Amino acid sequence: MADELESRLRPLEVELAEAWWEASTKSSPEADRRRTDAELARRGLLGDPNAFEAVRDARAAAARDTTVGPLDRRRLDLLHDALLPQQVPADLRRAIVELETSVDSTFNNFRGEIHGVRVDDNAVAEVLRTGDDPAEREAAWQASKQIGPEVADRIRELARLRNAAARSLGYRDHFALALATGELDEDRLLATLDDVDRVTAEPFAAWKAALDATRAERFGCQPTDLRPWHYDDPFFQTPPTGEASALDEHFARADLEALTLRTYDGIGLDVRPVLAGSDLYARDGKSQHAFCIDIDRDGDVRVLCNVEPSERWMETMLHEFGHGIYDREADRTLPWLLRGAAHALTTEGIAMLFGRLTRDPAWLATVAGIPSGTVDEVAPALADTRRAGLLVFARWVLVMTTFERAL
């Protein structure tokens, strides 16, 4: 039964991945329609109540049958968790899919404006990273938020529909359903986050106070007068680089693709096939973010970036190709459904490990080729930035989890 359902799902998954890639790299009404049609076809199969009942029964039987192997049990678990959220009326599935496509398309095509000039996210980031004029920084930060009014009503409606779908399946809301089908125990997750809060609140507050003092001195104001545009990241997801920004001039002259290859070659991993299928540079009608996608679980792995020569994008390249090599090296003797990360946290951990190399003195000297004297000079600042990055990331996760629960 699992074989038959997997064989029907596989071409639909591949078509959806191709359509999603096209909509993200070459946004158009035609690409959006293709994505919507592909998503509806996939969810239509997953929403088949007879298929869900068969998987549920087979899964229960497998739990009692010691002759059923672990791979078959795992396939049934994954199929169950994929089918369950789609056991809702077809018109509700369609409304959700069409809203998701509409919101994503708006994000892909929208560009904010600074003083009437249309700019991309890279331009906003450059002003916030290097600009000394508070008025210019505020204009850039505001440009990064102009997308909000364009999508706010649709996002609220999408949250309402997702919650309605979850409640129809017996779950409190979409957040609870997503955790349950993502193999995360909500109580354990929230308890872990409470622990994170307890151990990071005090050191974060101390670090933030010191940061605010330096920021206030730079911009000639009191710490209480600081606003979001006085920091380097529009969402305060990463800390300012401080003295480590002395490395920026080296990355400004660097070939980030070559450094990515050199990094992975150095540990015997070939990312060239991933690089060959990727889309790395900014243009209109393209998602401004970065992601890795495994198109077919059979070797076609791609990365989307919007690269400019900078430490920020070097980190992103190493991060996304960490995802890429993880997917690319999946054991293809496994059943198709099992090829890939056992859980999202595993591949994310690998990606973050590689991304952090841009703050590692050994990598900077041996791979990036930055003079050792320069690296030694900024090494203390790099260490401070790494520690601050962990604190900021921990607090950001807490904030985002609270926000998602509120939706």
Keywords summarizing the entry:
17 helices; mainly alpha; 2 domains; two-stranded antiparallel ribbon; 407 residues; two-stranded antiparallel sheet; 4 strands
Task: State the shape.
Answer: globular
Largest sheet: 2 strands, antiparallel
Quaternary structure of the protein: single chain
State the order of secondary-structure elements, H for helix, E for strand. Answer: HHHHHEEHHHHHHHHEEHHHH
How many beta-strand segments?
Answer: 4
Order of strands in the sheet with most strands: 1-2
Spans of at least 5 consecutive residues whose pLDDT stays below 50 are none
Question: Structural class per helix/strand content?
Answer: mainly alpha
**Number of self-contained structural domains:** 2
Count of helical regions: 17
| Approximate helicity band | 55-70%
Distance between the termini: 37 Å
Average pLDDT confidence is 94
Quote the beta fraction.
Answer: under 5%
Rg over CA atoms, rounded to whole Å, is: 23 Å
Structural overview:
This protein is mainly alpha-helical and 407 residues long. It folds into two domains: 2-110 and 146-183; 191-406, no CATH class. Helices cover 66% and strands 3% of the residues. It has 17 helices and four strands. The strands form two sheets. Strands 1-2 form a two-stranded antiparallel ribbon. A hairpin with a 2-residue loop joins strand 1 (113-114) and strand 2. Helix 5 packs antiparallel against helix 8 and helix 6 (121-130) runs antiparallel to helix 7. The longest helix has 35 residues, at 372-406. It is globular. The two termini are 37 Å apart.
